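Dear colleague,

As promised, here are the two records you asked about, laid out in our usual form so they can be pasted straight into your sheet.

NAME FIELD: protein one
SEQUENCE, THEN STRUCTURE:
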Amino acid sequence: MIRRPVARPAARGLVGTAARTAVVAGTAAAVSGRVAQGQAARQAAQPAAAEPVPAPAPAAPAPASVDEIAAQLTQLAALRDQGVLTPDEFAVQKARILGA
């Protein structure tokens, strides 16, 4: 019986491995430098950290008549039926209108 040699991928050799390592290291250094520059630019663009300003309290809605509430709910249902609002968004807005 005759045995055939198994085909193996060609070895890179020492020079090929060194060249590949240099390319990978150079690319990594360039990318990390660019990321550092981007982060520094974003930090420079942000205003200095000051005391947080409290958000203004939402104004209390004026009492609405039953007709106004019904009209708002009808508009809300139409938006839901058109697909503009999801059922979850509809429920949140309905609760807001009803004051719950």
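NAME FIELD: protein two
SEQUENCE, THEN STRUCTURE:
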Amino acid sequence: MRFLLLILAAGLTLSAPADAQRRLSAQRGGEQDAAYRATQQGEILSLPEIRSRVRIPGADFIGAEFDGRVYRLKYMRGGEVIWIDVDARTGRVIGRQ
């Protein structure tokens, strides 16, 4: 009986990260869907358009986030991570970290 309970508990523990990953994927999918709709409606610039306007010499683009009004671009140069915040409507850089 203890062995069965141990197996059942292990299964529940292992499924928790998978559930969290599915929720994160759904959230990212929603973020992408919102960006796509806003781009199609002409409310914001597309990510490729935003990326073409931002130049970070010697840095590699490694990802982006979108919150509905600001793209946060992530670049890597050497061991340094550089975050660039860009207004999604205008393409203007509004912050850098």
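A couple of things worth noting about protein two: Confidence is low (pLDDT under 50) at residues 3-15. The radius of gyration is 20 Å.

Best,
R.
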